[in-house]
Amino acid sequence: MGVVRYEGLPFVARFRWNTGKIMEKFYEKFAEKQIIAARCENCGYTVVPPRMICPKCSSKMDEKNLVNMDGRGVVLSHTVVRKKLDGKGNFIDLNKPEIVAAIKLKGADSQIFVRLGEVEAEELKPGMEVVPVWAEKPEGKPSDLLYFKPG
Ligand SMILES: [Zn+2]
Fold first, then answer.
1. Mean pLDDT by 10 residues, the chain (151 residues)
2. Is residue 89 part of a domain?
3. 21 C-alpha to center of ligand 1: Å?
4. N or C, which end of the chain has less CB nearby within 10 Å?
5. Range of the domain at 117
């Protein structure tokens, strides 16, 4: 994969990480409101989003390693985000603060960082169970997964 440059950042960003076919499947499954992981046949490590190389033992993985998650997860930690970047290197205030959490999906060994909704930061506790909230008509793209909520 070649070097990809993105406009709108205050620096030149180069990405050399090829997500490959396995990552395409990850987003395709969003159309079915389904989250998938890759489970290593060698060591059993289960990673979300799926990767082509096991992060634990470096074994190669492909589509035969993909497994369905039920989508439920638990909150490991969270933070409240009050500002965002405007694409020119400036911070701008969010109208409404957002909660970003590290969660671990049931059956996964890795964690993902997601936005939490329908909950106040004061109500959050580590170990709280959360479920995904999907777009009404998912199309198999990242924006299909709106956020996670307690459930
Ligand atoms: Zn492994």
1. 55 62 91 97 96 94 95 96 90 93 96 95 94 96 94 94
2. yes
3. 19
4. N
5. 17-150
pTM of the model: 0.83
C-alpha 38 – ligand 1 centre gap (Å): 10
DSSP for 85-107, written as a single string: E-SSS-EEEEEEEEEEEEEEETT
Question: How far does the centroid of ligand 1 lie from the alpha carbon of residue 104, in Å?
Answer: 18
For the purposes of burial, counting CB atoms within 10 Å of the CB of 70, is it exposed (0-12), middle (13-18) or buried (19 or more)?
exposed
Residue 20 backbone phi and psi in degrees, to 5 = 75, 180
**What tokens appear for 13 in the block?**
């960003």
- 10 Å CB burial of residue 19 (0-12, 13-18, 19+) is middle
CA of 51 from ligand 1 middle (Å) equals 11
Residue 54 CA to ligand 1 centre (angstroms): 5
CA 33 to ligand 1 centroid distance, Å: 27
